[in-house]
Amino acid sequence: MGLRPLACLFHLPTAVIYGSLSLFVSILHNVFLLYYVDTFVSVYKIDKLSFWIGETVFLIWNSLNDPLFGWLSDRVFLSTQQPGAEISSPEVVLKRLRALSHNGPLFAISFLAFWVAWAHPGLQFLLCLCMYDSFLTMVDLHHNALLADLAVSAKDRTSLNFYCSLFSAIGSLSVFMSYAVWNKEDFFSFRIFCIVLALCSIVGFTLSTQLLRQRFEADGKAKWDQESTLKELYIEKLSVPQEQRITLAEYLQQLSRHRNFLWFVCMNLVQVFHCHFNSNFFPLFLEHLLSDKISVSTGSFLLGVSYIAPHLNNLYFLSLCRRCGVYAVVRGLFFLKLALSVVMLLAGPDQVYLLCIFIASNRVFTEGTCKLLNLVVTDLVDEDLVLNRRKQAASALLFGMVALVTKPGQTFAPLIGTWLLCTYTGYDIFQRSPLSNVVSAQPKLESAAALEPTLRQGCFYLLVFVPIVCALLQLLSWSQFSLHGKRLQMVKAQRQNLTQGRAPEVKTI
After folding, report:
1. Which residue has the higher pLDDT, 294 or 487?
2. Which of 80, 106, 285, 443 is 20 to 30 A from 395 in CA distance terms?
3. Residue 348, phi-psi category: left (phi > 0), alpha (psi -120 to 50), beta (remainder)
């Protein structure tokens, strides 16, 4: 009887197991995004200089580690046809699963380093951010790369992404639970909560990767046996010259000629900035725009919904992608973001219910767009493979190069947001006495009377003008992106042909 649940796990579809990996990331990462700044500013009392130094170093490392880890992982795949050096798809998948089985538990352990004061706040802030982001990058790179390696058709990739969104939505429930234990005056309950989350993540990564590895090890063994049987019938093409691996400089030169890649990263840089701007300033908007008009429980509900709804909403967006294509859905979301922001600007900050809907929907649709863009990157992986006739799709490397350009948006979001707010209103989160809850899950119920009118107006203009500017820039760059429709169908057909063309030639008997 006890073995029956384990037997059920072995028969789960690959898409379900792949999607479950998103659960073990999201239960930790959502809590990290919500509380790490507030923990260091309000609990550990980090000074302003140390905070800015830490964010600056993090900006550099956050941008460089994605292409660095991607290059170390996928540089072997950039080599072109070499006799006897064929790399099979199961081997590529197993390589990524081994990386996930090692880095997933380490990612969970690095998450715990934030919630215990073990060094000077400035030093701990810097080390924790860099260590956490390193393991998160390794997990994200290989998990996203599997999306391109496990499937080629848009239907199969949409199915994989569907389960990722479903499990990410379940993982977002950790935000609701964290609100019940978050207390800056007594950190013990919150620390225990984080330890439980980390243990669940470690067990989940270990079990899921082991199940997938067993599945693909069996596939790889069957493929190896088949190739051994056909070895005598293999015709080695001596007339084809042996080509060498390309260097990093040559790879970057190829990317610089990849027009769709360039337009995509321009659009995605703005998207990453907007996503993290919403994450960082969502509690601030609740505090200064709605705290005196809604209850604390309503503010908590809006906060929780803003983390869960994007994943649930994405399930509907994915069904639209099957019918209309990813390009059309993303473009529609940009127009929707622009329209909602203009309506809110015209309505003004005194329309409480409309303001609640806008604050929540702004984050929901922005995060929903982010979830769809991985599908676009997998299409770019296909186009890169076809344009440069690679031996194997360098999916992790391309995801890393996308992150090289777009990750700075994560750091620019809090820096530009606080600078704009300080310039317009004189409001500085580091110079208040005592430090108050700026980016907390709980809206503040009392504010300084003299500063509040100007601060409230500044928060409102920040809330509406940032999405308007972002939407206009994104529509401009997205209109230049051509990898959709007939061109996308042609690229996928050519990739299928290249994949099938790698099979050994057999003598005519």
Report:
1. 487
2. 106
3. left
